[in-house]
Amino acid sequence: MSADFIVIIPARYASTRLPGKPLLRIGNETLLENVHNSAIRSGAKSVYIATDDERIIDEVRRFGGNAILTASELTSGTDRLYAAASKLNLPENQIIVNLQGDEYNFNPDHVKQVANALDMQKSSSIATLCQNIISQDIMKNKNVVKVVKDHAGHALYFSRSAIPWSDTLAMKAKQNTPIGYKHIGIYSYRVKFLNLFVNLEPPEIERKESLEQLRAIHHGFRIYVQRVSNGKGIEVNTEDDLKQARTLAGHAH
Fold first, then answer.
1. 174 to 137, 139, 169, 182, 186: CA distances (angstroms)
2. Side-chain half-sphere CA neighbours of 67 within 13 A
3. Which of 55, 88, 109, 146 has the fewest CB atoms within 10 Å, i.e. the most exposed one?
């Protein structure tokens, strides 16, 4: 039985590396429209875009989506999600999926999967996804977030460093053996936990790693991490990512 969930996509105009990122064109559509379409195809009950910018609101209207205007001083995607959920007046057990606004060609099945994972894990406060890392370069790339899990699939730690570290990293990579897990930045929460999370004190590890999910672990909440097979999506953060996504869009037509 599939979980009943809604998707909220936080979308900021003022990205430092790619200003106006949600409105960049990739093939026949903007990046934001592509992410919105993935969310729609996931079977979500409803999909909303939470933003602080009228230009993004105009774009959402153009492709027929639902936009919610949130305050511009909000610092994180989770704060924006919370602000949007508050405006929607959702029941406290409603599952919300936080899909980042820069996930080009995100697999709709993975959106549904992260909602179902939380629905089945009653003792977890958050669910998220990961996939195997085979490449040593990915393991060492600080822009790729890694996760280590316990025996039951709960996150022990997330880091931009290579975790778990191993002297046999290079050897394993040559043998095509998984050497770790790459975190996929999609989350599901219940409204009740979201209300709690935004009021928790951000710890030092969150500031150092620049990873919000570490706040939940630091305060003793459980994050369930489900492994999925590699998707064909691209997280668009840099000019190179954009080029890659445009190449992919060109091949699709």
1. 12, 13, 9, 18, 29
2. 21
3. 55
Q: Which two tokens stand for residue 219?
A: 């305060």
Q: Look-up: residue for tokens 């890694």? A: 146
Report cis status (omega within 30 of 0) of the bond before 164: yes
- 52-82 b/e with 16+ CB inside 10 Å = b? bbeebbebbeeeebebbbbeeebeebbbbbb
Q: Where are the beta strands (DSSP E) in 12-80?
A: 25-26, 29-30, 46-51, 66-69
Query: The whole model's pTM is what?
Result: 0.93
Is the Cβ–Cβ distance between 52 and 20 less than 8 Å? Answer: no
Render each residue's pLDDT in the chain as its tens digit; 253 residues.
Answer: 577 999 999 998 877 778 899 999 999 999 999 999 999 999 999 999 999 899 999 999 999 999 999 887 777 778 888 999 999 999 999 999 999 999 999 999 999 999 999 999 999 999 999 999 988 899 999 989 999 999 999 999 999 999 998 876 666 656 677 899 999 989 999 999 999 999 999 999 999 999 999 999 999 999 999 999 877 788 898 899 999 999 988 866 4
| Dist CA 112 CA 66 (whole Å) | 19
CA distance 62 to 48: 14
Q: Which domains does the chain have, with CATH numbers?
A: 5-252 (3.90.550.10)
Beta strand residue intervals within 123-176, DSSP E: 126-133, 146-149, 155-159
